[in-house]
Amino acid sequence: MAMTTDSIFYQDMDGKPIESPNKIKIMDISIELFSRKGFTGVSIRDITKEVGIKESSLYNHFRSKEELLSTIFFNFRRSISRILPQEDHLGGMLQSVSPELFLKQSLAGLMKHIDDPVMAKVWRMMYLEQYRDRVVRDIYLNDIVGNMLKSLEKVFSIWIAAGRIQPADARILAAEYQYPLFAMIGVYVLLRVDGSSTWDIETGMREHVDYFVSKIIV
Amino acid sequence: MAMTTDSIFYQDMDGKPIESPNKIKIMDISIELFSRKGFTGVSIRDITKEVGIKESSLYNHFRSKEELLSTIFFNFRRSISRILPQEDHLGGMLQSVSPELFLKQSLAGLMKHIDDPVMAKVWRMMYLEQYRDRVVRDIYLNDIVGNMLKSLEKVFSIWIAAGRIQPADARILAAEYQYPLFAMIGVYVLLRVDGSSTWDIETGMREHVDYFVSKIIV
DNA sequence: AATGCTAACTAACGCCCGTTACCCTGTCAA
DNA sequence: TTGACAGGGTAACGGGCGTTAGTTAGCATT
């Protein structure tokens, strides 16, 4: 099996950067395997065989299989929080670019996150473990769906107040804009499991932004 | 654990109706357990203990754990195919009701399927096993996403030709209408895992239909 | 030179896994 | 009355599971 060496800046759950090469390798390979077979479908032996160490050695790095999973999602959470527009910068950014450009740049930022070879797999894990694991469910519902909708609602209400788009309920606009993208991201991530072409769904995302913008501009 | 006795008309994969009470019980309980812990997270012993038979007796009904899973999705597929509007009835139905009413009725039909206590769990299983199982992936991408988009595209193009809605690309309209619903259904199904309130997301679905209709009527 | 720490190792624990071979009992058609 | 058969049961197979105890080699600090 191919090995991922494109490793991200992983951190331990206490905030310390993870530097030990084998510990990084454990993370990379766990993400790869969990994303394809699910947490319960992968054994410690599967992981350590791939890493090239004995199973007992894994326990020098992680207290349990659960802690390994938590560490992966801890890093995902950190990483996701960076792609949301920060409230305090919002005012300036919104004045300098058009709504259309802003939305297209946001989409590009999101796609960049999903296209990262490691993060793509963690997105897959998130969709996969949601139903089994309450923490993962919360990450999706709060950190992703909830936060994105809230921050977009803010954006739309600013535009409405400034008369840059048609008056409407900002909360509904945020939902209309974002929910299709969530569904399309799901399909996109799914297609990539088999390495199928994602051209159609990527086009769909761009068409959605265009359609949406055409309906809200003054 | 609560037992589901509200069982559907199950069929074997060769089309024969499943009538043996314990075989129905195995299906119901498997669906319950698989939907909460995933296929690999549930053992034959978990299932048979709940049914009240020995594990060897399960093999009087199913050749393997895999066949049990396949039978569940075989029945899901059958059930899903019934909620899509049939092409041949389409013409008559579209003339007699307004676009708004038609869309609201379609949504109600879909929600009824998801609200069925058994089918709700299989929807959850589908989202859960998608990444592990190619067949499930195909059910979602083709039977659900693909078919619904195709049939909606047909509907919109008929309306456009009849001048009942504003001219537009029917394919894009279908996507704009349906994708948000897919995402919202995902959230809806997820919320039901914990028994959380689904009021917000159900409202969101209705608001989406209203918003969408308001943007397409002539 | 001695110390402590990191991270590898061997070996094993007790338990759970899917599945099978075989047996027993009740029902119902011939 | 007999015989097939559906659907229960017992017992066990070989193997995989997560995890732990104890050991050891290499390295940096004192």
Automatic annotation (TrEMBL), chains A, B:
Keywords: DNA-binding. Gene3D superfamilies: Tetracycline Repressor, domain 2 (1.10.357.10). Residues 20-80 form the HTH tetR-type domain. Residues 43-62 bind DNA. Transmembrane segments: none annotated. The keyword DNA-binding applies. PROSITE patterns: HTH_TETR_2. GO terms for molecular function: DNA binding. The keyword DNA-binding applies. Pfam families: TetR_N (PF00440). PANTHER family: ACREF/ENVCD OPERON REPRESSOR-RELATED, ACREF_ENVCD OPERON REPRESSOR-RELATED. This is TetR/AcrR family transcriptional regulator. It comes from Paenibacillus oceani.
